[in-house]
Design goal:
Order of helices and strands: EEHEE
Shape: extended
Number of domains: 1
CATH topology: Pemi-like Protein 1, Chain: D
Helix content: 10-25%
CATH architecture: Ribbon
Length: 51
C-alpha cells in the first residue's frame, strides 16, 4: 500500500492510498484496466468488487 499526493491546493496536500494487486489475481477475477470497482469493510476485512 502506498500513500500518494493526489493534488495540492495552496499550501494543503490531499492524499490517497493505492493498493497494487498482482496481475495473476486481476486475471483470475477477469478485471480489466479502468474497471469501476467498489470497496467496503466487512468484519475488519477490505472487500473489493465490481460495480
Amino acid at each position: 500500500m502506498q500513500k500518494q499526493v493526489s493534488r495540492k491546493v495552496k499550501n494543503k496536500e490531499y492524499s490517497k492510498y493505492v493498493i497494487v494487486l498482482p496481475s495473476e489475481i486481476v486475471a483470475k477475477l477477469g478485471w480489466k484496466e479502468g474497471e469501476n470497482l467498489e470497496a467496503f469493510v466487512r468484519n475488519k476485512k477490505l472487500v473489493i468488487k465490481q460495480k
